[in-house]
Amino acid sequence: MTAVDTNVIVRLLTRDDEAQFQKAKKIFSSRDVFIPNTVLMETEWVLRFAYRFEPTEIRMSFTRLLGLPNVHVNNPDLVYQAIQWHESGLDFADALHLATSQQHSSFLTFDNKFIRKAKGLSNCRVKHP
Hints:
- The chain is mainly alpha-helical.
- It is built from 7 helices and 5 strands.
- 57% of the residues lie in helices and 8% in strands.
- Strands 1-2-3 form a 3-stranded parallel sheet, with no helix packed on it. A two-stranded parallel sheet has the order 4-5.
- The longest helix is centred in the N-terminal third of the chain and has 13 residues, at 18-30.
């Protein structure tokens, strides 16, 4: 299995450099690929800030990418939960932090915006320390 960096995924999703897009496409069409959670977080950030993707576009891009049978992530159910929460208004990094911490009694933060946005989500106990 081959792990990939953010720039490989960004080339694949944006096709902003044709030569690199073709190389990325070949990787994803010919190998088993692992995407670390940290790479997903960075990819979301790059797509949002550098390419001005909206949360819906990010969700659609990630869902298609992670739906490929040869693409693997740590705990896909939690990653999909984070993607859904992101589209509902949570920052993607916060959503991923929260999704991967659900087995714990609470998630403590000083971020009032995070607390407010997480209140309506199921199984989320985000609060001040």
